[in-house]
């Protein structure tokens, strides 16, 4: 069953998808991976917005949908990737301490995808709430437009101001 829309799809006895059915709820996209949501890319910037860590991550299971509309990731990005989520976690443990403040947008998704628990987090969806309040959240695109006066996405394609400023929901695949 698709974890996004609940649609039932076919599987082989080995756990692979028997066919590539389109998900009618997600703009022709398929399901994420055979395991569900998995991480495909991690980018970390410092307070000066300089990239200090950027890597693609090889999912544990077969990718069914790269969710490119949100993630920006495509099959070629992961073709030669050897970095596992465990490698990423080890690197992050060397970059951050328990006192490091992490800042992100809908950051619970990123931390969930990383399988990391951290107590010092600033989430822009909390700092800049939606006018209709919860459960609504402002999109990263609208925050960038309103506060930085930049357009980062148009028609589902990234027009990234800088490739590393993509919507953090892209951490899921996926992502």
UniProtKB/TrEMBL annotation:
GO terms for cellular component: nucleus. The keyword Transit peptide does not apply. This is Exonuclease domain-containing protein. Keywords: Exonuclease, Hydrolase, Nuclease. SUPFAM superfamilies: Ribonuclease H-like. Residues 31-171 form the Exonuclease domain. InterPro entries: REX1-like_exo, REXO1/3/4-like, Ribonucl_H, RNaseH-like_sf, RNaseH_sf. The keyword Nuclease applies. One of its GO terms (molecular function) is nucleic acid binding. It comes from Eschrichtius robustus (California gray whale).
């Amino acid at each position: 069953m698709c974890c996004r829309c609940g649609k039932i799809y076919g599987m082989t006895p080995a756990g692979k998808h028997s066919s590539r059915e389109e998900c009618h709820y997600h703009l022709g996209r398929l399901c994420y991976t055979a395991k569900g949501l998995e991480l495909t890319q991690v980018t970390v910037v410092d307070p000066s917005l300089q990239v200090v860590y950027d890597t693609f991550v090889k999912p544990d299971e077969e990718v069914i949908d790269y969710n490119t509309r949100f993630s920006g990731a495509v099959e070629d990005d992961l073709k030669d990737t050897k970095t596992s989520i465990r490698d990423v976690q080890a690197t992050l443990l060397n970059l951050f301490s328990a006192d490091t403040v992490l800042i992100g947008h809908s950051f619970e998704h990123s931390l969930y995808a990383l399988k990391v628990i951290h107590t010092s987090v600033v989430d822009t969806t909390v700092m800049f709430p939606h006018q209709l309040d919860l459960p609504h959240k402002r999109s990263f695109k609208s925050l960038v437009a309103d506060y930085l006066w930049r357009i980062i996405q148009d028609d589902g394609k990234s027009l990234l101001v800088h490739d590393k400023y993509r919507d953090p929901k892209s951490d899921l695949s996926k992502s």
